[in-house]
Amino acid sequence: MMKETLLFDEPVIEISTREVTAITPDTSVAKAIGIMEKNNFHNLLVRESKEIYQINIQDLLVVSNAESNVDGLMYSPHCVHSDTPTIDAICELVDSGQRAAPVIDATGELAGIVTDYDIMRWGAGSRILKDAEVTEAITKKPAYVYETDSIGKARSIMRKSNIGQVLVVDAEEKLKGIVTQGDILKKIYKPKRKMTAGEIKGENVPRMGQSVSLIMSSPVITADVDANLADVANLMQEHDIRGVPIVKEGIARGIVTIRDIMKYLRELKERAMVNVEMQGDLDEEYKELAERIIETNVRKIVRFARRVHWIKIVIKKERDKGGVSYYKIGVHVKTPDKLYVGQSEPGGTKTITAKRDAGEAEKKAGKRRWDFIDVLKDALLSVEGQMEEDKKRRRKK
């Protein structure tokens, strides 16, 4: 039989926020900002009859008239269906460029909202991300400014590079802080305490010309180079941040953003779409369990190889002299660089001793689950071990 394996295919509604706060188009920008800041929202849904719209805080913060309505800023968002597999919903968010998407049920009714922070919360407990090193998604050579550079320079770099944050370093390039688009919006465009020309006594410097150190976040939430992506995802959702610098001895070696992790998951999905061919005789009672074991192990295999062309599992059912059946299994994994082969067999009949009352009785095991399950796992583990060794050798080069 042929099976195409997928990663994390649970419905997206399972990780979504189901209690949705929504406003109407005649809500003022000031009120919408208040709701978003109170609830720590970055996006907010707008309901008009059965129509669903969306606004984001970045657009609201640059509006000159805070008493105007949000209807001029709302847009029709891409929506995802509640039964969409989580990985597909992630891909849809990446493609749409949205940080959040309404989730609708089979009748078209609003069932929730899924945000990139929901995805990070899910990812923080995901074995998929726990098994992935930060190097899998890191952006090396991150954009940075010196702590004496201007706020305007930081904004210019973000606009030119289409990024949401820049690092702030000292003269020795030690990490001192981070400045985001949100920092500039909230502290320059809509500050709670107005920053004026001449913020530094004796100087007459416009706000955008002042030192970036005045608005940077410090100390910075960072992760070590040995961290995994689940650690990073946890930091993002716990501290409500979109990027985590990866440091070694105080020097930033790169940065991992929410977008980086989502792109990594999308790439992982593409790599995990592997055709698995099973050849040979297999008892019907084992088929469902075999598929689950294979799918779990294929996820591990694709993390060792950048690309897997195909996987073939050859099953041979044999009988020993006593007539007890057992299995021999061969696993063949083809990557662009190599063909990996793992083989396993249980060794035929197993004799067990059962103690009864004062005496002992010997009996031969009949058809045993371990004959198939253990042999299948051993064959898959053999391939995984070979691939892991190759991956370690590549790192040393």
Describe the structure.
With 397 residues, the chain is an alpha/beta fold. The protein has three domains: 8-114, Roll (CBS-domain); 134-264, CBS-domain (Roll); 274-396, Double Stranded RNA Binding Domain. The chain has helices at 29-39, 57-61, 86-96, 116-124, 127-130, 151-161, 181-189, 229-239, 258-272, 284-304, 369-396, and strands at residues 2-4, 22-23, 43-48, 51-56, 80-81, 100-104, 110-115, 139-140, 144-146, 165-169, 175-180, 223-224, 243-248, 251-257, 275-280, 310-319, 325-334, 339-344, 351-356, 359-364. A five-stranded mixed β-sheet has the order 1-15-16-17-18. A four-stranded mixed β-sheet has the order 8-14-13-12. Helix 1 (29-39) links the parallel strand 2 and strand 3 (43-48). Helix 4 (116-124) packs across helix 8 (229-239). The protein starts with a strand and ends with a helix. Residues 1-6 and 348-369 have low confidence and may be disordered.
